[in-house]
């Protein structure tokens, strides 16, 4: 027998445990789907349609709900001769500016038409926008433009100003663009420029974290399809749901935990998947998530994390952002890197909080000091320093911090 062999004992069909799996129905999101349906209904009625923004932490069903609703919308629109509808979907995961988003939109339209893509560099932003308007106007009817993880563009929000006004400004004549923005950052809209806020005129749909019972309802039909009968012990699905509910309320996290537990049982040649496998899988996923989250940060994100690690090492936490910003500036000066504004540092702190790396405390001292936030690490300092030491730029600073750790 070789090193690799096909398993016939644990998994019957692992596809329902894959991130790309699209379920036949969306569970425990009835209110959100009803709001979504009302927001999209004007398209069928051939009426002006508001832009739609979905907010919620990762794994709360925003993307899968959007795919579900747009699939139904496209099928139903086909029944009406006077409704023309097209959808363009772009993930902004690795896009940090309106320029990059516009390029991605142009190339997605051209990909569908088997046309040559344009270069990602060499154009002015206005020229890219002009090309985008030309490509859009060659289509007809309502064009739904889905921008997944739109918060990655930060304050470079010109695309959100230009697209909603494209028709009124005469840039397009034949189409009505509708933006569907999907964001993990509840404060994304607050950080937009005033002109963009006034232009968007969007409907907002909030996706709260799932609780344990909701996650059980989501996991059970997937587990029934994914595993052979009798493989899962009775406490496996509830425990996966409980772990995910306590941490982030993420269905994606609960599903990955269930899959990891199954793979662990498979690798051990165990006859059933038990509570032990879930707990072992949880430990492994937590470790991987922690390191991946920190390693994927930008240079500025690492610099902010490094500044907070310094205060954590000196037992000076929780720390206010203005104090943290001074340390951040010192760190940037040490390796001769460009620094960003204090407001942008607060944005990076929000990102770190969303990743579960730090804890944010809101303080309110009334008229004397008003409201402000304080921050501290929510993960072991040693783990943070190990990640920082693995990057050439921060290795020396991380060693210095490690040498000056005060007893907690």
From TrEMBL:
The keyword Ribonucleoprotein does not apply. It comes from the Archaea. The keyword Phosphoprotein does not apply. Residues 305-388 form the Cdc6 C-terminal domain. Residues 48-206 form the AAA+ ATPase domain. CDD domains: Cdc6_C (cd08768). GO terms for molecular function: ATP binding; ATP hydrolysis activity. Keywords: ATP-binding, Cell cycle, Cell division, DNA replication, Nucleotide-binding, Plasmid. ATP binds at residues 60-64, 210, 222. Involved in regulation of DNA replication. Belongs to the CDC6/cdc18 family. HAMAP family: ORC1_type_DNA_replic_protein. This is ORC1-type DNA replication protein.
């Amino acid at each position: 027998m070789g090193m690799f062999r096909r398993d016939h004992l644990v998994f019957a069909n692992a596809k329902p445990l894959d991130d790309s799996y699209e379920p036949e129905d969306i569970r425990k999101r009835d209110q959100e789907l009803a709001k979504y349906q009302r927001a999209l209904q004007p398209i069928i009625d051939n009426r002006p349609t508001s832009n739609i923004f979905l907010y919620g932490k990762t794994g709360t069903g925003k993307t899968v709900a959007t795919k579900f609703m747009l699939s139904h919308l496209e099928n139903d629109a086909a029944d009406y001769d006077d409704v023309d509808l097209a959808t363009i979907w772009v993930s902004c995961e690795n896009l940090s500016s309106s320029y990059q988003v516009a390029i991605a939109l142009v190339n997605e339209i051209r990909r569908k038409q088997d046309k040559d893509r344009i270069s990602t560099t060499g154009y002015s932003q206005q020229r890219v926008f002009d090309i985008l308007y030309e490509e859009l106007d060659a289509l007809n009817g309502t064009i739904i433009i889905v921008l997944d993880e739109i918060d990655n563009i930060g304050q470079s929000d010109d695309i959100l100003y230009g697209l909603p006004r494209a028709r009124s400004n005469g840039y397009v004549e034949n189409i009505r663009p509708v933006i569907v923005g999907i964001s993990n950052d509840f404060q994304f809209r607050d950080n937009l420029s005033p002109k963009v806020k006034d232009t968007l005129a969007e409907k907002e749909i909030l996706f709260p974290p799932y609780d344990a019972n909701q996650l059980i309802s989501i996991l059970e039909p997937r587990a029934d399809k994914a595993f052979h009968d009798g493989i899962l012990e009775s406490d496996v699905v509830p425990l996966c749901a409980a772990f995910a509910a306590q941490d982030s309320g993420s269905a994606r996290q609960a599903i990955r935990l269930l899959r990891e537990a199954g793979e662990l049982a498979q690798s051990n040649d165990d006859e059933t998947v038990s509570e032990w496998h879930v707990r072992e899988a949880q430990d492994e996923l937590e470790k991987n998530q922690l390191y991946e989250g920190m390693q994927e940060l930008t240079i500025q994100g690492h610099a902010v994390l490094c500044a907070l690690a310094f205060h954590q090492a000196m037992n000076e936490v929780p720390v206010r952002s203005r104090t943290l910003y001074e340390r951040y500036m010192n760190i940037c000066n040490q390796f001769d890197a460009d620094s960003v504004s204090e407001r942008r540092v607060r944005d990076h702190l929000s990102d770190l909080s969303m990743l579960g790396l730090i804890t944010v405390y809101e303080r309110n001292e009334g008229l004397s000091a008003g409201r402000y936030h304080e921050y501290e690490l929510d993960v072991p300092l040693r783990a943070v320093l190990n990640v920082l030491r693995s990057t050439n730029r921060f290795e020396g600073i991380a060693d210095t911090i490690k040498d000056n750790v005060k007893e907690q």
